[in-house]
Write a structure and sequence with these properties.
By secondary structure, the chain is α+β, with helices and mostly antiparallel strands. 55% of the residues lie in helices and 7% in strands. It has 25 helices and eleven strands. The protein has a seven-stranded mixed sheet with strand order 6-7-8-5-9-11-10. A two-stranded antiparallel ribbon has the order 1-2. Strand 7 and strand 8 form a beta hairpin. The longest helix has 29 residues.
């Protein structure tokens, strides 16, 4: 049975507490058969299969609203997965190729063995998202789907995790609202469908915070939470601020209000410190111009250009006077829900939908009141600390949606809490507000799959990998590739699955020392039509919109690949 949106939101509204979604019928205290007759009655044995099926049926009856929310969330994230966004962005191609290269050859394209950070373009990219793709690459090889799979899986798990966090903070009604809002959130849907390395940070941090709140009842879970907090530092440079600030504040709260033992806190802190040591060494080496550390099964590389954390943060450049300006940039971003980057948002839906921010602010202030009433000892304290750390982070860099991606899950969480707080006494109001969000979602979905696919073409270079693969298969001669793409050389490596040793030994960089280093030649490839005049090439990969007309003559046979084309010289 498929429910309509109205039926779903009405059901969420009816779940006013943890037990109201299930009917509990009290029965009289009837004596058992043994008490009445004195005889022992053998229990009928239930086949194992029937027992499993019965438990599954009971679970579905109990959690069918959550299952329906998950169905919606999974459907919007998996529909035509790999085709939307169309093509392949250069950053996901870079991370994907380097991860595949390490998996099969033990080195990335810059020659480092099992690096904890990919050198990538010269300023570094975070390797964890690539390593998380290894199981999928072993099964499906190197392609768009396998590169994006870790983000899809983590996106789906995040819906379950935010339900668990909300359940531990308040009750089942709030948990269902929070899960539903994350399932239909436009920002979260978009980051779950493509492979930018930094987009695994919010999901991993959410799991870490969930485990931390679970440790309030079972302290032994705190060391496991520490593992996930440490992993976050390998996902994005913003974690260098978020993780230590959050852990210090949380540790003080756990000690004061929940009376965690010193041994548990010290063990968890030791786990974080030990697991973060390679990242700390990476920061030290690149900040103070040290030498790369290369071990048989781990490399801590010095970037060939300025490290990304140095160019993004205003503090590393000594621009302390920008702190207040950076904070105003965050506020402006949250108000407009737009940073001008097409892969981050679709207008007018933004990151939270147009009506989301007022409810998020209401939720934050309501949560502050709840925590104050409990004298600090309330699980809502930790999502509030999460938001506080994001504000601290925004002081140290000029944010866009990518750079402050860690703030959006707690904003969705507090949007749900704002709706929950505003509708405590009215199921009708709750159903109405949730229906409005669902209406925005029904408009966002076609906008994503129809209009966004056209606007995203320039950022995802649709057809370029296929064009390079076709050129490579058709000729053994040198191949000339257009510069009408961002870092076109990575698409040659990705499309042909070339061994990294070939690139390491033959690559020619035109701007060494830059944070984004361009490769003009490697192997049989030359990049840039202006460099392809001295010898005969077996194929020319072109940007269709800008360069196709240059080869429209009887001397060439042109084959189109969406936004790119291949010109093959015709034998005379």
């Amino acid at each position: 049975m498929i429910m309509t949106g109205d039926a779903l939101v009405t059901r969420i509204a009816d779940c006013t507490n943890a037990s109201s979604c299930n009917t509990i019928v009290s029965v009289p205290n009837v004596p058992s058969r043994r008490a009445r007759t004195g005889r022992v009655t053998k229990k009928k044995s239930v086949p194992l299969r029937e027992g499993v099926l019965q438990r599954a049926e009971n679970g579905i009856r109990r959690h069918w609203v959550l299952l329906l929310i998950l169905t919606i969330g999974i459907a919007i994230r998996t529909w035509e997965f790999g085709s939307f966004p169309p093509g392949l962005n250069q950053d996901e191609a870079s991370t994907g190729y380097d991860a595949w290269s390490v998996l099969h050859y033990g080195i990335d394209r810059n020659g480092f063995r099992f690096p904890m950070m990919f050198v990538s373009w010269g300023s570094g990219m975070y390797a964890l998202s690539g390593y998380l793709a290894w199981p999928f690459m072993l099964i499906g090889g190197l392609n768009v789907i396998t590169v994006r799979m870790p983000h899809l899986v983590l996106g789906i798990l995040s819906i379950v995790a935010v339900y668990g966090l909300a359940l531990r903070c308040i009750d089942r009604k709030f948990a269902l609202i929070a899960a539903f809002f994350l399932a239909i959130n436009p920002w979260h849907i978009m980051v779950s469908r493509w492979g930018l390395d930094s987009n695994v940070f919010p999901g991993l941090f959410l799991i870490a915070v969930l485990l931390l709140t679970a440790s309030l009842k079972k302290q032994k879970l705190l060391p496991l939470a520490a593992v996930f907090f440490a992993l976050c530092t390998y996902t994005y440079g913003t974690a260098y601020v978020i993780v230590p600030v959050f852990l210090v504040l949380s540790g003080l709260a756990l000690r004061r209000w929940w009376k965690f033992s010193s041994a548990t806190l010290m063990l968890s802190g030791g786990i974080v410190t030990a697991l973060c040591m390679p990242m700390l060494l990476y920061i030290f080496i690149n900040q103070f111009h040290g030498t790369s550390i290369e071990l048989p099964f781990l490399s801590i590389p010095r970037m060939t250009g300025p490290a990304r954390f140095q160019t993004v943060s205003t503090v590393y450049g000594g621009q302390w006077y920008d702190l207040w300006r950076n904070l105003t940039i965050l506020w402006d971003l949250l108000l407009r829900q737009d940073d001008g980057l097409g892969w981050n948002r679709i207008l007018p839906y933004g990151t939270l939908y147009p009506i989301g921010l007022p409810f998020a602010l209401l939720g934050i202030f309501s949560a502050i009141g709840t925590v104050k009433k409990s004298a600090g000892k309330h699980p809502l304290l930790f999502p509030l600390l999460w938001i506080l750390c994001c504000i601290v982070l925004s002081l140290f860099q000029r944010v866009n949606i990518n750079r402050i991606n860690i703030i959006f899950i707690p904003l969705v969480f507090f949007t749900a809490y704002g709706v929950y707080a505003a509708t405590k006494t009215s199921k009708v109001a709750l159903a109405g507000i949730v229906s409005v969000f669902f209406l925005f979602f029904t408009q966002f979905a076609p906008a994503y799959f129809v209009h966004f696919s056209g606007k995203a073409r320039e950022d995802f270079f649709v057809g370029l990998p296929d064009a390079i693969a076709a050129a490579s298969e058709a000729t053994e001669k040198p191949i000339c590739v257009t510069e009408g793409a961002n870092m076109p050389y990575i698409y040659a490596l990705f499309a042909e699955e070339l061994p990294p040793h070939e690139f390491v030994n033959t690559a020619v960089v035109t701007n060494p020392g830059n944070q984004f280093q361009f490769v003009s030649h490697f192997g049989r490839y030359t990049f840039g039509l202006s460099r392809c005049t001295e010898k005969t090439y077996g194929a020319y990969v072109l940007n269709s919109r800008e360069e196709r007309h240059l080869y429209e003559s009887d001397q060439y046979r042109i084959v189109d690949f969406t936004d790119y084309a291949v010109a093959f010289p015709v034998a005379s």
